[in-house]
From TrEMBL:
Transmembrane segments: none annotated. The keyword Lipoprotein does not apply. This is Alpha/beta fold hydrolase. InterPro entries: AB_hydrolase_1, AB_hydrolase_fold, Sec-Metab_Biosynth_Hydrolase. One of its GO terms (molecular function) is hydrolase activity. Residues 4-228 form the AB hydrolase-1 domain. Keywords: Hydrolase.
Length: 238
């Protein structure tokens, strides 16, 4: 069985993987999640948050056994940066309705090239311009529209500000990143990252490494059992 390390997306934290971790463990895997730098428990100034720091933090959490590293949404950049830094520590990269980076672009660059901008008007920049927050009133229709109402409320209450600097930093990817196997899971009912843009990103992956789920942007909450089955299938086939 596989060892999974789960990396959250914008305004989320390790908490969002609660249900998926349970399902993966029931399937016999080892699974854990971490908070990226800049969450509430991190005392460092938000101005010190960087994409490199994200990568270093992920790599520091991996011991001897290579992990199956899954990134959700903005977490796609963090897992790619970690793979470039320490490719031998990663068995496979899993992009879950995530930004799959291209060398020389930032996440913000990629978001701007989307055909639609669902988050326009749904996020608020902080007064110092260093972070942004999701509007709680719009969280359910954007992130959790197919999630049970009690779970969606639980998740909305835990959303936190997101540092901007890591997302504005162009990523550098080379041979190290290219050496790591990767796959893409597109969510066809996603209302945060347009599914057609996910298809565009996934088109750069080998056909056998492209998968789909008929869910929102948060399959780890709306269908954790189905996601665990798919991850088990992918991990076992490679």
């Amino acid at each position: 069985m596989a060892a999974f390390l789960l990396i959250h997306g914008s305004c989320h934290g390790a908490w969002c993987w609660r249900d998926l971790i349970r399902e993966l463990e029931q399937a016999g895997h080892r699974a854990r999640a971490i908070d990226l730098p800049g969450r509430a428990a991190d005392a460092r100034p938000v101005r010190d948050m960087t994409l490199d720091l994200y990568a270093q933090d992920i790599v520091s959490q991996i011991a001897d056994e290579p992990v199956h590293l899954l990134g959700h949404s903005a977490g796609g950049f963090a897992i790619a940066a970690a793979a470039e830094l320490a490719p031998t520590k990663i068995a496979r990269l899993y992009y879950l309705c995530a930004y799959a980076p291209r060398d020389g672009l930032s996440m913000i660059d990629m978001r701007r090239e989307q055909p639609r901008q669902p988050l326009l008007g749904a996020v608020r920049k902080s007064s110092d311009g260093l972070s942004y927050s999701a509007d709680p009133a719009q969280a359910v229709p954007l992130f959790y529209h197919d999630v049970a109402s009690t779970t969606a409320h639980w998740a909305t209450e835990r959303l936190c500000p997101e540092p901007i600097r890591p997302q504005a930093t162009p990523i550098t990817l080379g041979a190290a990143y290219a050496s790591v196997p990767r796959c893409y899971i597109r969510c066809t009912d996603d209302r945060t990252i347009p599914p057609e843009y996910q298809a565009q990103m996934a088109a750069t992956f080998a056909p056998e490494d492209r998968y789909e789920m008929p869910t929102s942007h948060s399959p780890f909450l709306s269908d954790p059992a189905g996601l665990a089955v798919l991850l088990t299938q992918i991990a076992g086939a490679n």
